Automatic annotation (TrEMBL):
The protein's role, per its UniProt record: Catalyzes the formation of N(7)-methylguanine at position 46 (m7G46) in tRNA.
One Pfam assignment: Methyltransf_4
UniProt GO molecular function: tRNA (guanine(46)-N7)-methyltransferase activity
Protein name stated in the entry: tRNA (guanine-N(7)-)-methyltransferase
Record carries keyword tRNA processing: yes
Catalysed conversion reaction: guanosine(46) in tRNA + S-adenosyl-L-methionine = N(7)-methylguanosine(46) in tRNA + S-adenosyl-L-homocysteine
Enzyme Commission code: 2.1.1.33
Residues binding S-adenosyl-L-methionine, per UniProt: 126, 151, 178
PANTHER family cross-referenced by the UniProt entry: 3-DEOXY-D-MANNO-OCTULOSONIC-ACID TRANSFERASE/TRNA GUANINE-N 7 - -METHYLTRANSFERASE, PENTACOTRIPEPTIDE-REPEAT REGION OF PRORP DOMAIN-CONTAINING PROTEIN
Length: 392
């Protein structure tokens, strides 16, 4: 991730604008961590400043608010370095990577799929597309299909976005989001194929796998009749786990293949074939049309809070409900009336990481597009109860 090390930073007078970046405020925690809110071309992100044991400062993008396109973060860090007159000790920021900083038309935020995505034809989805070989091949071969690629590895996303532009591939949309949550934003019966090729097997932590009973149920809902959910893996344990999950369905059309040849292979599959590892395919075909559903809306606060009371009583705290949790991790103070709370919440096996921003009594999520899935809504209710318990 882009970052630089420095001995000192000149204090800024907030808000301030330098070149293309506006720096709105600085927040600090009792642990000695600092955050700086920055924005450029509509992208809002936090810069994290961490003091190392040798006394030097590490400056980088905060993971929670880090933009998918690294060029934005690199440019913001360069502007922050220059306006704060930092003397770099080390940097991995490469100016050549952001000579032209612009939003890719192929990259979409989750809010787009929740509120603006217009389904005009058949959709195919690839979850965890990695290098993008298979996704790009399928999109070029099937120009009439709308492809959605889900990936959380940002260098892989950058690579596919670049190839879409270089090869003029216009039927791919890329989203940086948890696939298990993403499925809830698609209408029923609109997807023809869902590819999950070589996911992380998580053999020691099976609860972190993409496949689960809930994921399969949601996949069957979005698939049209005769649509398929397709796993390809080199892990015998993942293959057995997925097959067992599908066999728990009351009705299932499942096909299994071993060492089947595809038109295109990933670099990982090429490596494993050289090692003579077996490759397993499990293909589930949907047989039933599903009822339409309403899309989840976004979560909002309709309350005022006293930041001073929250600051004075705040502690690292984990709260649990039935199938969900809320973890209040760290509080950052901007001024007497404003601050940020870093937290994670949601389902036990998949969760959101974000901040709660408190500005003169007003409360909001940061990033603000926290969607009202079942587990998120339950956690949101618990968060509001936590605020009431402190402020009432």
């Amino acid at each position: 991730m882009p970052n630089f090390h420095t001995q000192t930073l000149k204090p800024l007078s907030y808000p301030c604008t330098y070149k293309e970046t506006t720096f709105s405020y600085e927040a600090h925690s009792k642990r000695g961590n600092k955050l700086v809110m920055a924005s450029m071309q509509g992208e809002h992100l936090l810069i994290r400043i961490h003091q190392k044991e040798d006394g030097n400062l590490l400056v980088k993008g905060d993971k929670v608010t880090r933009p998918t396109q690294a060029s934005f973060l690199q440019k913001v860090l360069i502007d922050f370095r220059d306006v704060s007159e930092a003397k770099e000790i080390y940097s991995n920021i490469e100016p050549k990577n952001f000579l032209e900083v612009k939003h890719s038309p192929y990259l979409k935020e989750i809010d787009f799929f929740a509120n603006h995505f217009d389904v005009k034809g058949e959709i195919w989805i690839e979850i965890g597309f990695g290098s993008g070989r298979h996704l790009l091949h399928q999109a070029k071969k099937n120009p009439h299909i709308q492809f959605i690629g889900l990936e959380i590895h940002k260098p892989s996303i950058e690579q596919v976005l670049k190839q879409c532009e270089l090869q003029s591939i216009e039927n791919i949309l890329v989203v940086d989001y948890d696939a298990r949550l993403f499925m809830e934003f698609l209408p029923s019966n609109v997807v023809g194929r869902i590819f999950v090729h070589f996911p992380v097997p998580w053999d020691k932590k099976p609860h972190r796998r993409v496949f689960s009973a809930a994921f399969i149920e949601e996949a069957l809902r979005v698939l049209h009749v005769k649509g398929t959910l397709e796993l390809r893996t080199d892990s015998p344990l993942y293959f057995e786990f997925t097959f067992a999950q599908m066999m728990q369905l009351s009705r299932a059309d499942v096909h299994v293949k071993k060492n089947a040849e595809l038109e295109i292979t990933s670099k990982y599959e090429d490596r494993w074939r050289k090692m003579e590892k077996d490759i397993y395919d499990v293909i589930l075909t949907n047989e039933v049309a599903s009822e339409p559903i309403s899309k989840p809306d976004t979560l909002h606060f309709d309350m005022d809070v006293d930041f001073r009371k929250i600051r004075d009583t705040f502690k690292d705290e984990l709260l649990r409900g039935e199938g969900f949790f809320v973890h209040f991790e760290e509080l950052f103070e901007i001024d007497e009336q404003s601050g940020l709370i870093r937290l994670s919440f949601g389902a036990n096996e998949r969760n959101e990481k974000c901040y709660i921003a408190i500005q003169k009594g007003q409360v909001s999520y940061l990033p603000d597009a926290i969607l009202a899935t079942k587990s998120n809504r339950a956690a949101h209710t618990l968060i509001k109860e936590w605020f009431h318990g402190i402020c009432d």
